[in-house]
UniProtKB/TrEMBL annotation:
Organism: Intestinimonas massiliensis (ex Afouda et al. 2020)
Domain TRAP C4-dicarboxylate transport system permease DctM subunit: residue ranges: 12-422
Lineage: superkingdom: Bacteria
The keyword Repeat appears for this protein: no
One cellular-component annotation, GO: plasma membrane
Main location: membrane
InterPro entries noted in UniProt: DctM, TRAP_DctM
Protein name: TRAP transporter large permease
Length: 432
């Protein structure tokens, strides 16, 4: 066995073993990289250099700001305002509260960019409300966790920033624009599924639509929605970079949460900033260690080897695209979102662009949506666990109730994968 083959085997086998042993993902990535470097006879100074290089990126500075913005807005009384707005829009339908849940998640996703935050915030309000109105608890939980994945697609999503950096400096503004229609498509798909189930189970309708109430709720929620406008319009129009717009959005979020909605006092602000530091520590350690892992993959030519192996199976772009989705879905069942983006992108992106004819932006939306589905699947589905904890429902019961919504999400994924215009229409329209 030559040195290259030995190093690849050490890197991948040690990583998989540590994942199966439930090592923290950052440790598994770092230790497998160390063993790989030792197998190649390289100096471990490389480890330190690549870790520092991995987080020395101006674009990545946007990630802490977006996370901080989401935490401040999510804790500042935004959820209730957005739920009221969603109720004014779609609450009149059969299964109205399920529709409200889905639309509220679309709105809130533009604030938090986090499926976990969406589930914890919206779910803690909507699930008890739905149960009180006669909805089954497992159905209410399934609607909440699946609709929370809209927030991964709707800007500003820090996972899109991570993908843009990992993929080689793709325009963050283009990714932001590309997420809107897939996010809306996912919402519509989930609403169709919810309506069918609601009609079958005779779930109640809400109050009749009122244009006066709708305008009133728009006026109340405009402060929250303006944060998204600042970020997206600023980046797309070229007024700010993603990092600058994120920093401005943090200051705006602080002002709205403390002085407008008054959901946070200054003591609460410091508490939430402490929570941000904990989250950021995890994210940045993961990015830095994944940078070393990516360095090992690149120097060992693993992406080229994987591409060659996959293409030898078939050269049909339709089948190849389906295979990429299956790979990402399987990874989503055993790994969290950020590690998948950081580790899988350098390997799979060349296959997607060279052999499937996918644009890197379209592939980014595919990656994010696949990872979102993974957040809802055992054994590592973080959002599934959060939803189960919030609703106090057994995870097995929640998974069973989620099965119809998995189908809705898979249909959306296939449309995004095979209809490029869904992702590329807005970036092309605005010339990004």
């Amino acid at each position: 066995m030559d040195t290259q083959t030995l190093a690849i085997a050490v890197l991948l086998i040690s990583f998989l073993v540590m994942i199966l042993l439930r090592f923290p993902i950052a440790y598994a990535v770092a230790l497998s990289s160390v063993l790989c470097l030792l197998a190649q006879g390289q100096n471990l100074v490389t480890l330190c250099r690549e870790m520092v290089k991995g987080i020395s990126s101006f674009s990545l500075m946007a990630v802490p700001f977006f996370i901080t913005m989401g935490v401040l807005m999510g804790s500042g009384g935004i959820s209730e305002k957005l739920i009221a707005l969603a109720n004014a829009c779609v609450g009149w339908m059969r299964g109205g509260l399920a529709m409200v849940n889905i639309v509220a998640s679309y709105f809130f996703g533009g604030i938090s960019g986090s499926a976990a935050a969406d589930t914890a915030s919206i779910g803690s309000i909507m699930i008890p409300m739905m149960v009180d109105q006669g909805y089954d608890a497992d159905f209410s939980t399934a609607v909440t966790i699946t609709s929370s994945c809209e927030g991964l697609l709707v800007p500003p999503s820090h996972n899109m920033v991570i993908y843009a950096t990992t993929a080689g400096g793709i325009s963050v503004g283009s990714l932001f624009l590309a997420g809107y229609l897939p996010g809306a498509l996912l919402a519509v798909s989930l609403m169709v599924g919810s309506y069918i189930i609601s009609a079958k189970r005779n779930y109640p309708k809400g109050d009749k639509f009122s244009i006066i109430n709708f305008i009133k709720q728009i006026g109340t929620s405009i402060w929250a929605l303006a944060a998204v406008v600042i970020v997206v319009i600023g980046v797309v129009a070229g007024v700010f970079t993603a990092t600058e717009s994120a920093a401005i959005a943090v200051i705006y979020s602080l002002f709205v949460s403390v002085f407008v909605y008054k959901g946070l006092d200054w003591k609460g602000v410091w508490r939430e900033l402490g929570n941000c530091v904990d989250t950021l520590g995890i994210v940045l350690i993961l990015i830095s260690t994944s940078s070393v892992f990516g360095y090992c993959l690149t120097t060992l030519h693993v992406p080229e080897l994987v591409a060659g192996a996959v293409v030898r199976l078939t050269d049909n772009p339709i089948v190849l695209t389906l295979m990429l989705n299956l790979i990402l879905l399987v990874l989503g069942c055993i790994m969290d979102m950020a590690p998948i983006i950081l580790i899988a992108t350098p390997i799979l992106l060349p296959i997607a662009t060279q052999y499937c004819g996918l644009d890197p932006i379209q592939f980014g939306i595919m990656v994010v949506l696949n990872c979102g589905i993974g957040l809802l699947t055992p054994p590592v589905g973080a959002v599934l666990f959060i939803g189960s904890a919030v609703s106090k429902q057994p995870m097995e019961k929640v998974v069973k109730a989620t099965l119809p919504f998995y189908l809705c999400m898979i249909i959306t994924l296939l449309l995004v994968s095979y209809v490029p215009q869904i992702s590329m229409l807005l970036p092309n329209l605005f010339g990004k």
